Structure prediction request, 274 residues.
Amino acid sequence: MAKRATSNGFRALRSVFKGVDVPPPIKPHEEDYVKRIFGALKPQRMASLNSSEKADLPGGDVPEIAFAGRSNVGKSSLINALTSSTLMKSSKTPGRTQQLHFVSVGGKIGGQPDIALVDMPGYGFAQAPKALVDDWHRLVGRYIKHRTGNNLKQVFVLIDSRRGISAVDHDFMDLLEDLDTDFQVVFTKVDSISGSALEKTIATAEKSINKYMRMHPIVHLVSSKENLGVREIRNQIIHMSGLLSSLQTRAQRRDNREFEAAQAAMLAKDKSTQ
Prediction:
């Protein structure tokens, strides 16, 4: 039996650019913050839209992280794993459902969520009518165009690790590049492939995707079934949303207040001894 990629020593983050190292783990208090956001409120669908006109998209300034990929690549399963839910249902007929699904994560009761995960309809479905393909381009293309630079912070492009990156994946990455949209590659279903086959998939990817300027240099390896790599994607989502930066800012303000209080106490003590 082939040795699975999920054996001991599994690494959920890999660099596909020479000279670029995998970032160090986030700090424990940051990890706790990520857990609080994903555990704050029960996730729910904010909207399921078959239109991406500006007037139809959800309002507000909630950071959005989108998930894209071929039909049946595992988008719904990954969103369920990230939110510890069974909220998203996979379609048994690839290409049939042409909707954007917005899932709320975190926040407070009665207010906006901290972030929204966006499940985009799958691409690359075989033998699809031209009208269906055109509908997909209108729906997804307009959403990306309208949201990039505002709500949309990043697109995770999911690739089945058993199949590797295909021509239709490259077509979608080209679209993201043309629209100046940041994206990051996620290899799914790594529990279903041997370690050597996975290394071959990654090596092939290194040669084919390092031309993209908008692509993140680190790829994720995940198994929703085995819950591998899910924690790392949660951390990345909160980082890309800008929420970790706001946490650091608050921590800096707290440190400054503590420093100023200590300085004031020292001055008061010096005056009392004079």
The first helix runs from residue 28 to 40.
